[in-house]
Amino acid sequence: MPLDQLDEQPGQDVEMGFLDHLEELRKRLFYAAFFVVAGGIGLFLAKDWLFDVVLFGPRNVDFITFRAWCQLSEWVGAGEALCVDSINYELINTTMLGNFTTHILVSAIAGFIAAFPFVFWQGWLFVRPALKESERRSARGIGFSSSLLFFTGVAFGYYVIAPLSLQFLGNYELGDVQSRISVMSYMKTVASITLAAGMVFQLPVIVYFLSRAGLLTPAILKTYRRHALVAILVLSALITPPDVTSQVLVSLPVLVLYELSIVIAKRVHRNRTHA
Questions:
Q1: Which residues in the chain come in under a pLDDT of 50?
Q2: Please, what is the end-to-end C-alpha distance for the chain in angstroms?
Q3: Phi-psi region for residue 16, left (φ > 0), alpha (ψ -120 to 50) or beta?
Q4: Neighbouring C-beta atoms of residue 256, cutoff 10 Å
């Protein structure tokens, strides 16, 4: 029997006490942790693929992003200005447990990314009984939408933000100082950028729930639109090479998500008003 079958059956909404809520939360957290650990163990065992193919991919000049970047440079008439022909930084390990610790940390983060749909679904099953039937119907498909946005953000962070940031920061020069980066620092940078991008792409989902709760309105999002624009442009300027094309490519999807969030907030607000 599926874990969530009882939650999906009609007529089972009963009043729950405080201890019952705690027990339900404990159960959902246990299931979520189980999926994360299972994913982490699987990826821990797939060490060669996880590191050599995935994580060290952005260090290869033949990485798909760098090839696309070079083609774009030629297409806009900039010649080979945006082409990457060398990686000038090297990775080192300076502690006895460094590689093993990095392996565990990366596997845990990758396990969470892989298990995100299951983690979100467990959170949804905990919240769902507190919603009205109309609210449940309006939120139908929220798990699929959230997972799709998350993995789209992860792909955007991995294929766009991470390679540009690594190339810029890894090759940043100060005098004659050579860039020798610890493998832990490199992995943390790739993992944090990828995971953060996935969470940023959850903005429409977060706006939906806040709007349903009455904590956020379209007017608020419109009022702070210019502030959000400035913040996004500043952030993209900090994590990308100092050229306009890179900054636009990084900031544009986030701006689209912000505008999409305004549309979602309008729709939720309209439904609440007519309810």
A1: 1-12
A2: 36
A3: beta
A4: 10
